[in-house]
Design goal:
There is one protein chain. By secondary structure, the protein is α/β, with parallel strands linked by helices. It folds into 2 domains: about 240 residues, Aspartate Aminotransferase, domain 2, CATH 3.40.640.10; about 130 residues, Aspartate Aminotransferase, domain 1 (Alpha-Beta Complex), CATH 3.90.1150. Helix content is about 35%, strand content about 15%. The protein is built from 13 helices and 12 strands. Strands 1-7-6-5-4-2-3 form a 7-stranded mixed beta sheet. Strand 5, helix 6 and strand 6 form a beta-alpha-beta unit. Helix 2 runs parallel beside helix 8 and helix 11 packs across helix 13. The radius of gyration is 21 Å and the shape is globular. It binds pyridoxal-5'-phosphate.
């Protein structure tokens, strides 16, 4: 089936009891047994819940994988990787990860004896074998946040196979509409469903998908043991949102592409970062079906960047992305606020860099808002 059909139906064939078109919300902590030796499919909702199972099957469908799991947040899904590791193991990670993931790795995993080796994933061939000792997981994001650099997923998957590592990608920015890493050989895909999958800036959630039963069993064990699971209602809401996921993404893609192209000729923008406009354009075309909703711009020195934010009328300043409404993020002070100044400057994130999550409004309204705010803030 095609992407839009998959998004609308999500592998759900109706509820057996009353033929309801939508899944019921099983808002229950437990399930009774008629006798001691009754074996129920579900016993206790931390371990499993029918509404959560509907969502877990749905993300597996969208990612073209076998097994899905739902967590209470994106970072809870990343934290579940601990279930694949023990003290002394290491993670090889790309440098420019989501800030919350960096915080989790550096300030939490390391306290449990799991070290992280950071590397520029543009090239993996210069990593000596000696550095890979004890490395169990290779972890990355593409496109990256906020500069939308592209890493070669197939190459990273092949590298992982060669060195017997579990390859893990955070596919939140691209979404399963634009990129399906399992088909390119990646072992495990992680999502923050707080972004495009829920799509309405109203839920916090995380998801994992894999074709590897052993990996899935270990992460499922983390759900049960650690308990970072979403409520049945949140599972139902994300599932409901996923039905419009494909149509939303098609519009996100076309709005963002249109705006990125038009912004190229706007004075006072020093640089536009968008996968298809970057120098790694060919790689983006090879592994992505669309280029997503996120555009990052760097304003010229003669634009007062604080005034620019004040002069935006439609686009609101906020941390997150992936909702129906257009949002803008000041990378320097917000998403990357906890990173030291020198490090930010070195990686190209100065005070004039803004990440825009292009929403579903009329494309001309979004574009005009940016254009007007720039011209009112320039000297
Ligand atoms: C938001 C986000 C996360 C974290 O997800 P939460 O749901 O906020 O915990 C992880 N990775 C990426 C790329 C994100 O954008």
């Amino acid at each position: 089936m095609g992407k839009f059909t998959d998004s609308v139906h999500l592998g759900f064939e109706g509820d057996k009891q009353f033929n309801s078109v939508n899944p019921p919300i099983y808002q229950t902590s437990t399930f009774f047994k008629n006798d001691f030796d009754d074996i129920n499919k579900h016993d206790y909702s931390r371990v499993s819940n029918p509404t959560r199972e509907v969502l877990e099957n749905a993300i597996a469908k969208l990612e073209k994988g076998e097994y899905g799991l739902a967590f209470s947040s994106g970072v809870a899904a990343v934290q579940s990787l601990m279930g694949l590791l023990k003290s002394g193991d290491k993670i090889l990670a790309s440098q420019d990860l989501y800030g919350g993931t960096l915080r989790l790795f550096n300030n939490f995993f390391r306290n449990y004896g799991i070290d992280i080796i950071y590397h520029d994933f543009i090239s993996l061939s210069d990593i000596p074998d000696s550095l890979l000792k004890e490395v169990k997981i290779i972890y990355f994001e593409t496109p990256t946040n906020p500069l939308l650099k592209i890493y070669d997923i197939s190459k990273i998957a092949a590298f992982a196979k060669r060195h017997n590592l579990i390859s893990v990608i955070d596919n939140t920015f691209a979404t399963p509409f634009n990129q399906n890493p399992l088909e390119l050989g990646i072992d495990l895909v992680i999502h923050s469903s707080s972004k495009f999958l829920s799509g309405h800036s109203d839920i916090i959630g995380g998801l994992t998908v894999t074709n590897n039963l052993e990996i899935n069993d270990k992460l499922k064990y983390v759900q049960k043991v650690v308990g970072g699971i979403p409520s049945p209602f949140d599972c139902w809401l994300i599932f409901r949102s996923m039905k419009t996921f494909a149509v939303r993404m098609e519009r996100h893609n076309s709005n963002a592409l249109h705006i990125a192209e038009k912004l190229k000729s706007v004075n006072n923008i020093k640089h536009i970062f968008y996968p298809i406009l970057n120098k790694d354009k060919e790689l983006a075309e090879k592994q992505m079906n669309g280029f997503g909703a996120v555009i990052t711009i760097e304003l010229n020195e003669n634009v007062d960047y604080k005034k620019f934010i004040k002069n935006l009328k439609l686009i609101k300043l906020a941390e997150s992305l992936g909702g129906v409404e257009s949002l803008i993020n000041h990378s320097y002070s917000m998403s990357h606020g906890s990173i030291p100044h020198e490090e930010k400057i070195r990686s190209g994130i100065n005070e004039r860099v803004f990440r825009i999550s292009v929403g579903l409004e009329d494309v001309d309204d979004i574009y005009e808002d940016i254009l007007t705010a720039i011209s009112l803030s320039s000297s």
